[in-house]
Backbone:
């Protein structure tokens, strides 16, 4: 695993603000430092994720504050930034009547690669994204999954230092999502390229990310690196029909780690005795147990219901 | 993920892993030139489906066949019936049809499929994109003129009865023809491409360009028919084909449009049209969302 130096920040914003002409505020004073690795940028639709990416590429100009990408100012040094960054847009953006090989070769040249190298790297990149066999077929005949791979290939073909992926799993079925995320993970680890991956589905990308940045309504909600623990430990979701407060207290007394969730309790699984303790506690309090389900500790639970905070760096 | 490529019947694919690129990264100029080449190929359907080749290559082939016929007529007549500049004027309407078909092909597809996002996230600037596309369309139209002209040159040069001086005469005529072709191509492209860039629908783009070229012609024709004084001599300014034919008349002393003493006005109008079309295109691409 190529782990990039942690001292560098790939994207840094300071009170970044973007108001559109219609009066819509997409970003309202966002201050965040995005570190190398695979960083998940999460937030609901309209939270400002795409706007942040477009500001990072210099496709939009901020209306306030500052942003630096790879140490450069994307407003005044747009070409230099874009030469070192790869961008995969959210929407469909492929012409239907050319082959993937032709398109990726062409776009590699637009990125400044000499013609023979462009052809070579286009083939290589399409192979890395699993599109080697189909590369001479017209894009119009591709499935959504294949198109997403081609979109990823065009962002990768010029060997960028930073990849900006806007909702890369959009429109994919579960298997396609899994494959795309595995690919992104491979790019971030084996290829050694920093990746900023946007998603409105936190539960989906948390598995591959080294850190997460959550934004809401154009503000930073939370920014944290993910420890191995939060990614691996399992929890039990316990739901009772009555108020879960007394149950939580009793379980905590018994030495379990308990968190309140939307509809019940999340109890960290500590061997089989956890089940017994919960059963006994429910019986003792004469509650009716509605559901008890084992699941992975989702980072979504850590991020849920947070008030916007000032920059909160754990990494 | 490499497991996605089936280790198939034909052999094993060896995964040598990801290679970093440390070589040269050429700049904006190179990128713009690459886009120009690519767009020129696109204009003639090269690297694309057979369907995309039919119209542009079909028109080009027809123009070349017409030129072969002209060569045969020219060599049979005591005096050539058509000069090189005359050839450009004759093929002008074919060239406008070509520009109307190819212009939208070059820009509407990118707008419709939102391919622009892939260009604008690269070092190339919006203006580079617009100018490369404009240059590609102008070159494509120029090639349409040049093919028949070269056929005519070869035919005439081989049939000359005056030896080397005859060939030199043909070269002189060819150069004048090429100059006329440059002017015609530039004006047609500068007019057609901003119109094509207005819409992501190719058919609309083509219709719009055809309308401007073909509907303005009868208007200027009618004014010319009504008046053979100054008004009639300036009427050619009203439609682009007559305009460039007027420039031919001014520069080479031949052309289908009577310009009277106003030749220079035609020249200036052509320049102004090229400048205005280019400015409109650049303005349009400043507004396009990435």
Residues:
């Amino acid at each position: 695993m190529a782990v990039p130096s942690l001292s560098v920040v790939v994207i840094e914003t300071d009170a970044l603000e973007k108001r559109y002409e219609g009066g819509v505020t997409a970003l309202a004073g966002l201050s965040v430092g995005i570190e190398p690795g695979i960083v998940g940028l999460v937030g609901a639709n309209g939270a400002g994720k795409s706007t942040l990416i477009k500001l990072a590429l210099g496709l939009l100009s901020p209306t306030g504050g500052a942003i630096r990408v790879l140490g450069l100012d994307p407003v005044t040094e747009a070409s230099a930034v874009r030469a070192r960054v790869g961008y995969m847009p959210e929407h469909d953006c492929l012409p239907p009547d050319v082959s993937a090989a032709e398109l990726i070769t062409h776009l590699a040249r637009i990125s400044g690669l000499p013609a023979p190298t462009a052809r070579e790297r286009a083939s290589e990149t399409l192979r890395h994204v699993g599109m080697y066999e189909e590369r001479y077929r017209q894009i119009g005949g591709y499935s959504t999954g294949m198109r997403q791979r081609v979109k990823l290939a065009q962002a990768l073909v010029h060997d960028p230092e930073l990849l900006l992926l806007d909702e890369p799993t959009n429109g994919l079925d579960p298997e396609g999502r899994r494959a795309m995320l595995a690919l992104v993970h491979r790019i971030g680890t084996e290829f050694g390229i920093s990746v900023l991956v946007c998603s409105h589905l936190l539960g989906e990308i948390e598995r591959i990310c080294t850190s997460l940045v959550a934004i809401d309504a154009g503000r930073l909600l939370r920014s944290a690196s993910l420890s191995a623990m939060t990614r691996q430990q399992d929890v039990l979701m316990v739901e009772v029909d009555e108020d879960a407060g007394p149950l939580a207290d009793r379980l905590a007394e018994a030495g379990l780690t308990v968190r309140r969730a939307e509809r019940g309790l999340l109890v960290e699984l500590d061997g089989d005795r956890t089940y017994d303790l919960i059963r006994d506690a429910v019986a003792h309090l004469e509650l009716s147990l509605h559901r008890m389900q084992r699941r992975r500790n989702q980072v979504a639970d850590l991020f849920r219901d947070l008030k916007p905070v000032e920059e909160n760096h754990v990494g | 993920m490499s497991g996605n490529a089936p280790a198939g019947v034909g052999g094993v694919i060896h995964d040598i892993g990801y290679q970093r690129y440390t070589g040269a990264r050429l700049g904006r100029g190179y990128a713009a030139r690459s886009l120009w080449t690519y767009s020129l190929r696109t204009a003639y359907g090269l690297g694309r489906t057979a369907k995309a080749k039919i119209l542009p290559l079909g028109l080009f082939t027809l123009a070349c066949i017409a030129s072969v016929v002209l060569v045969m007529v020219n060599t049979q007549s005591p005096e050539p019936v058509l000069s090189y500049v005359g050839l450009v004027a004759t093929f002008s309407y074919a060239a406008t049809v070509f520009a109307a078909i190819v212009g939208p092909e070059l820009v509407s597809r990118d707008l419709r499929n939102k391919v622009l996002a892939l260009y604008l996230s690269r070092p190339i600037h919006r203006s580079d994109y617009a100018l490369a596309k404009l240059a590609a369309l102008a070159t494509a139209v120029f090639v349409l003129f040049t093919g028949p002209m070269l056929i005519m040159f070869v035919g005439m040069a081989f049939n000359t009865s005056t030896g080397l001086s005859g060939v030199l005469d043909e070269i002189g005529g060819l150069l004048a023809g090429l100059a006329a072709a440059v002017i015609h191509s530039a004006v047609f492209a500068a007019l057609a491409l901003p119109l094509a860039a207005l819409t992501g629908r190719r058919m609309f783009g083509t219709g719009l360009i055809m309308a401007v070229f073909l509907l303005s012609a009868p208007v200027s024709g009618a004014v010319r028919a009504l008046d053979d004084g100054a008004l009639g001599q300036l009427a050619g300014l009203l439609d682009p084909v007559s305009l460039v034919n007027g420039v031919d008349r001014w520069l080479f002393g031949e052309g289908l449009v009577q310009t009277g003493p106003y030749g220079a006005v035609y020249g200036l109008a052509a320049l102004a049209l090229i400048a205005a079309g280019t400015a409109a295109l650049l303005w349009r691409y400043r507004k396009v969302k990435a």
Summary: Confidence is low (pLDDT under 50) at residues 1-6, 305-315 of chain A. The two ends of chain A are 19 Å apart (CA to CA).
